[in-house]
Amino acid sequence: MSEGGERARGNVAVIPEGARPIVDQITAAGVVVAWTLTTAEWFIVDALAKRSGPDMLAAAAVQAARRARNGVSHARYFLRTWQALPPAPAEGTVPAAPTGPGADVIPLDPTAPRKGRAAQAADWYAEIIAKEQ
User: Fold this and answer.
1) DSSP state of 12
2) For position 2, what pLDDT does the model report?
């Protein structure tokens, strides 16, 4: 059935209050789409938000919209992406350690005074000489 037929029968639901944070986050990210979903589709969105969390749904929608070659004009486009998302992590779950280039680098404290290489070398040589004596 076409969207026009659904609207004519009054099957299109307004944005439920529980979905408002998702819609607001997606719109604030610059992704502007039509939100004329049916009542059944809003129930699906609600269930997915409870499973994966509204932040995850919003982030996935923004990424999907940016990847879309022809742009996105309707929120229905996000339903498949959202259905493929994993459940939100359990409360208190610690994120995995980062991997990839630079993941094992310890950042330096930018406020700590640092000696130049020559000064470090002079200190090392002074320590060696002190140990030998």
Assistant:
1) B
2) 47
Chain Cα centroid distance, residue 28 = 14
Query: Does the residue 23 lie in any domain?
Result: yes
Number of domains in the chain: 1
Domain span including residue 53:
1-88
Q: Does residue 103 lie within any of the structural domains?
A: no
Q: How far apart are CA 93 and CA 83, in angstroms?
A: 22
Alpha helices in 1-133 (DSSP H): 3-9, 20-28, 39-52, 54-67, 78-83, 117-132
Mean pLDDT of 70-85: 95
Q: Residue 93 falls within a domain, yes or no?
A: no
Handedness of CA 102, 106, 111, 112 (dihedral sign): negative
pLDDT of residue 10: 55
In a domain, 107, yes or no: no
Question: Is residue 82 over pLDDT 80?
Answer: yes
